[in-house]
């Protein structure tokens, strides 16, 4: 009976070791998978910031071009410059980004989009400015960048969805909660976001 009891204790010990080993390797694999997916989200976010920054970088040249036309409505240009300043002042840490952060970022970028759209609408009333080569160059670059923004925000959302699904699926959610991996916010579609900006008109 004594040998049988020792055998049982040994069997239980081995079983426990196997369970611990399985949990360890599952946890290691799951953790590394979370890290990889989160890094992908961070990279996509960096791409989003880059294209928005490219758009912001167009504004100084636009400002110089428009200012050369003294009769142009300066208030419209001023609002673009102010919106650019506000948009570029928002810095977000993608490793700790919240829904509120995303909403603030989108609101500022949306304000800049609206200001630029209003300015370009006003330019339609100024044939000489509209035909200015510098303005034409701006509009070409602006159209390309807006299309890139749409693409990069879609890529970001796709990577965020992949990551979020991974950390919220059972039993991964247990490990994610224990290791403090948090859900990433999504870009929300804006009115008219599905329509690319028109190229300059002749």
Automatic annotation (TrEMBL):
Descriptive protein name: LemA family protein
Entry keyword annotation includes Transmembrane helix: yes
Compartments, as annotated in UniProt: Membrane
Chief location category: membrane
Entry keyword Nucleus: no
Bilayer topology term: Single-pass membrane protein
Organism lineage string: Bacteria, Pseudomonadati, Bacteroidota, Flavobacteriia, Flavobacteriales
UniProt similarity note: Belongs to the LemA family.
Pfam families to which the protein is assigned, alphabetical: LemA
Organism for this UniProt entry: Chryseobacterium glaciei
Transmembrane intervals: 7-27
GO cellular component: membrane
Keywords of this entry: Membrane, Transmembrane, Transmembrane helix
């Amino acid at each position: 009976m004594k040998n049988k009891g020792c055998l049982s204790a040994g069997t239980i010990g081995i079983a426990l070791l196997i369970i611990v080993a399985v949990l360890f390797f599952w946890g290691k694999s799951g953790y590394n998978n979370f890290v990889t997916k989160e890094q992908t989200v961070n990279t996509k976010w960096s791409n989003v910031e880059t294209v928005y920054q490219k758009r912001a970088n167009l504004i100084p040249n636009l400002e110089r071009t428009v200012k050369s036309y003294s009769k142009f409505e300066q208030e419209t240009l001023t609002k673009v410059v102010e919106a650019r300043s506000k948009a570029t002042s928002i810095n977000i840490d993608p490793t700790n980004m919240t829904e509120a952060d995303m909403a603030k970022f989108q609101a500022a970028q949306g304000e800049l989009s609206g200001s630029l759209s209003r300015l370009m609408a006003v330019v339609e009333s100024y044939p000489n400015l509209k035909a200015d080569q510098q303005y034409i160059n701006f509009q070409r670059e602006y159209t390309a960048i807006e299309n890139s923004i749409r693409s990069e925000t879609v890529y970001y959302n796709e990577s965020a969805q992949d990551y979020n699904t991974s950390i919220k699926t059972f039993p991964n959610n247990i490990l994610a909660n224990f290791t403090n991996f948090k859900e990433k916010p999504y870009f929300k579609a804006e009115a008219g976001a599905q329509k690319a900006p028109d190229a300059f008109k002749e």
